[in-house]
Amino acid sequence: MNQKPGVCTFCGTGCGHFIGVENNRIARVYPSQNHPVSKGRLCVRGWNIHELLDTPDRIKKPLIRSDGPFVEASCDEAVGRLIDSLKKYPPESIGFLASPRSSNEEQYLLMKLARSVFGTNNICLDSESGHRASLNVLHAGTGMAGMLGSIEEICGAEFILVAGIDITRQNPIIGSEIHMAARAGAMVVTMDSRRTQIARLSKKFLQVRPGANKLAVLALAKTIYEENLHDPSFLEAHTEGFEGFRRAFGKLSENELYEKTGLKADEIKTVARHLARAKSAMVFFSSGISGLDEDTIGYIYNLFLLAGKIGKEGCGVNPIAGLNNLQGGYDMGLAPDLLTGFQPLADAATAKKFEKEWGTALPSSPGKPIYRSLADQASELKALVVVDHDEGIVRYADAIKKLDFVAYIGAFKNPFAEYAHVVLPIATYVQEDATFTNAERRIQLSTKKIEPEDGLLPGWKLYSMIAAKAGRAWKYAKVSEVMDEIARLTPAYAGVTHAKLAGGFGLQWPVDDKNPGGTRRFDLAKAGRKLAFYGVSDVFEAPSADDRFPFLLMVGKAQHFWHQNNLMKKTHIPMREYNATLMDYPEGYVEICPQSAKEIGVRDRWPVRVVSPHGEMRVSARVSDDVSPNTAYAPYFVQEMISRFLLGHTEVLRQGEDATIPVRIEKV
Amino acid sequence: MTMFLIKKSDVGKIAEELARDHQVYGPMIEKGSGQTFFDRADDVSEISLSAPIPSNPPKSVVFPQMERVLAYEYDRPKNSVKIEPDYKVEPKALVGLRPCDLAGMLCLDRFFMGQEFVDEVYLAHRKKMFIVTNTCVAPFKQCFCVCTDSGPAASEGYDLNLTDLGDEFLVETGSEKGAVFAAGLGLAAADDSHLARKKKIVDKSISLFEDIAVDSKAWISRVMNRVTTGFVKEEVWEYIGDQCFECGACSFVCPSCSCFNIADVTNPECEGCADRLRSWDSCSYEGYSRMAGGHNPRKPVEDRRNKRFFCKLSYSQMKKYLRPGCVGCGRCAWVCPGDIGLPNVVTYVRREITR
Ligand code: SF4
Ligand code: SF4
Ligand code: SF4
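Predict the joint structure of the above. Result:
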């Protein structure tokens, strides 16, 4: 039999699959029936992953260039060039942009390389701050920097809130679990500005005005509190800091709330009562590029804490990672201020533990997030190492061009490589054992399926080689020893070994002496602490449209258009689906409702100009019932939007989906 | 046709014997996960006749998920092309095929070989094939072949058919090739009493189907009538279409779905060289039905969905396949993230009829 178990590495759901191999090439994929997360399902991306894994569009040879075009080089030469170039600069001037797609082992070693070999804390993930915002809230509130619930428990939840995430597109198999729960009787409520598929499949749809999610959540919390639907003894015994949250309730009158959110009193009240009365309740929201801002996430967490829906079976505040190892990336300390497992770099005892294990002092100067440096004209950043990059390039192309030195490390061809001076290939994830941590903290081992092409090193070997050449010999005989080291340094991973993960469906962290089989969800009974309400602001600046800019534009994801599609473009079927929409809307589209289209005087596929206070772009109109009058939606793949239009909107990039842009839409 | 008996302990010999001059495929259980796959056996002892219905459709043997069908090299200056077809001609034996899956393959035969043009690639896989089916002595949870006239025992299209009689297997031959092969095994002959025992076992098996499957028996034909005559209301298709995640799984896992995509993949290391790949495709994808020029006859997802159910449940398809397009394997219900596998769709249409 020729079926090798593994994990889909597109999104953070972490579905299980089997890969078939022929002549050392990936020939097919099939879903894993007994996998606890995916239970025999895959989405369009997962069903076609073999097309990506078999693509000839790979980086296979190290490349270097001085002034002219690239020339092929030996791995030795290219690594030598990388080290010399980085060592020219003080640590503050070099940076590492890590990938939320790399395995835990690769991410950990890149982090170790940056800190222990090149002495810099300038390291971060190539993804927007959305997931970090979620982790900040959950960590501060409960001590767990990850999804509090579990995908396996979705089917047991009585109430499910889907807040501002197009989940059947972004993480379809999680969307499927929610749909199944709704069919089995759960009260599923979607809160969004756009009528997404999950909105249609929900029992209630709260169509909030763009940018007003936080207010809608506030309205729910206020109702629960004012109708006395919460349990004061739970608040007393298990929580702290409620007063701070309660202060926000008085800021706006009920009527103001309804007006600003566009929701009706009875809609809010019914949903609030359902939430409060359900035995178990979960909420899902997006982390990543189109995720909510930290304050809104704080409100969501506080709402569920007030309703007493945290730490029990079928409950969970669940940020959804769009990329396969985004959660793992934070677990592996890919942030200027973090070490592994969300341990703060500033904590002296933690730093000491790492210094002892690594046999070197940690850099003391604080690091800066790479994107902030790129956006800052006065930044000291001069040299940048980028791994398996999808996104930021189109936005920061100019800043990246200005750097003295850029290195690109990756398995697949990528437009980013054009900006690099050194390109180093690595093996794909099916060419080595690797672990990935999905959105629900499940650490899964994906075993090696095929041999890497001649001369290609898996990431962990390449990083070890760079370290050795730079004068620090790491002694890993096999990749599992990297995980052993992670386990020694990271309490949440303390009990994880490759041997323990082999042949199973993974373990959810924390995995330690107390929880040798992992931890399905955050458990109130075992918390050993009070749960803190998150310190949220009581300032509400919902963007509003006016006569000059009468539309509120939202930015989001679409199923086949995903993170610049560098990987999707290497498939055939998902790529065709991508082209089908592109052919209809060659310049991308902005979605408006039929009534708005009529007012502007355009029809489906007619060109329009979208003008904001900070910029403009030309796209086609897509006429659809999914948006309300005077709102508009543009999927994130619209190139011109990301490269030009959004550049003036730094706030949007930082805040994600909740920061909507007032625009005017004109016929051209 | 002739009939024989083979001892349970000897039944493995059939695969062993076939392995002499065939690539042998059969149901096998993946150890780590317990999942059954119909796959090529590196070692024929891996094949398990008692394994549950395979999770993947055996159609992957004759119609693989992704297959290189030819390679070509275009020499621009000389304006010449070198084409190398890549047909997999090795003889193959399928051992332990379930009746529904055989029925599915017969549909594929009619699609790929029974029309005006014969598909050479498919033909190459199928040509020297030896098929051993295995009667289902008990249905699996999701099965409803009793409603689609494709089980639990195979009636045509096999070379050998095995039925577990308890202590031994009844071996029925279904073709000349099968008769010759079976005669060469030196088995004891079976008689009508064994056939009567088989009938009892099949009847028992039929009685064990979930009520809903047995219940649906009449319903499937009534639903087919409705679907064919276009009497299913828009709203029902919309209700179904809203739940489709457009993943393609239902087509991929279906033993009778035949749609494919062709892609030419250029080789970056060899100018003018390309591989032609054929792979599974699905009517649920928007790009699948889009025509050049932008017209898409099936743009809304509910239109694409009802296309599938037309394909599985209408008389026009019966003309093509000489049987319903659905063979009752239940796999689409397993894999559908929208929970609109064929049995549920039948239920929704049926609900409308009874209203
Ligand atoms: S939901 Fe995510 S992990 Fe699952 S198959 Fe789709 S892309 Fe892969
Ligand atoms: S339609 Fe579904 S149940 Fe019918 S044969 Fe295809 S996969 Fe099996
Ligand atoms: S399996 Fe279900 S969700 Fe997927 S395409 Fe088929 S009907 Fe749609």
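The first strand of chain B starts at residue 3 and ends at 7.
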